[in-house]
Amino acid sequence: MRWSQVLADPVLQNLPYKIELNEWGKVVLSPASNKHGLLQAELAGFLRDHRGHGKIITECSISTAKGVKVADVAWGSQDFFARNGLETPYREAPELCVEIVSPSNSTLEIEEKVNLYLSKGAREVWVCDEDGRLRCFTCRDSIEHSRLFPNVPDDIPFQ
Fold this sequence. Notes:
The protein contains 4 helices and 8 strands. The chain is an alpha+beta fold and 159 residues long.
């Protein structure tokens, strides 16, 4: 299956799940909790308040070596959007991709997504755990604080 087919399929519209494609073109569904939605909104709100010259996108589809992955939240510079517009899925990752860990995510799955986003050009990937704690990664390794958004808190309040 191709991403354009997923978007056009009426059966897959308005599902309470995150949809991705794996490397074999198979649809992968991940249910989202309300906590997940709150964390996603808080992260998007933080980025909106501190975005500088760029745009925030939620549910950002990115074509990777292992299929289409969907970052929960992403930030792209004006240059990124000038190059890519609203292409779906993006062939390159925005400068920042954020993954919010769900109970169904394994550690290996999250590590793989971090590496996939970085390999597609993301400068940073943030991983937000279920308690709102953030970890930041670059292509070199984890970093203590974001370089793109140095004032991001270590914990995202959601309660």
